[in-house]
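Collaborator request, handled under Task 6.
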Amino acid sequence: MPDPQHNEPSPASHTGTIFGDLQNPRLIWAKGILFLVLGVLSTALLVARLPSLTEWALLCICIWSFCRAYYFAFYVIEHYVDPSYKFAGLSSLAKYLWKHRRSP
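Structure tokens returned to the collaborator:
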């Protein structure tokens, strides 16, 4: 009987990738915590080097903008623009955009 905490990956999820989907909840949490620690440490180093409020504001706008762009790439297109599109990384977005480009 399959473990209800571990979703079975679909066969398509491994196609063309070196690594399969991360399934272990502890490893998923560890990965998220490592991203958070990396973000906090790099932010602390940048803040120590930023001399003015203008640089702080630009850094915040940059981070916020890239987060929103990433959200757009994986969620908005899939749920509101094209339900047949399944996000599998930024390279899949580039392929999608190239395939659906409009000719002038």
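The cover message to the collaborator said: "The chain has a mean pLDDT of 79. The chain has three helices and no strands. Please let us know whether this matches your experimental observations."
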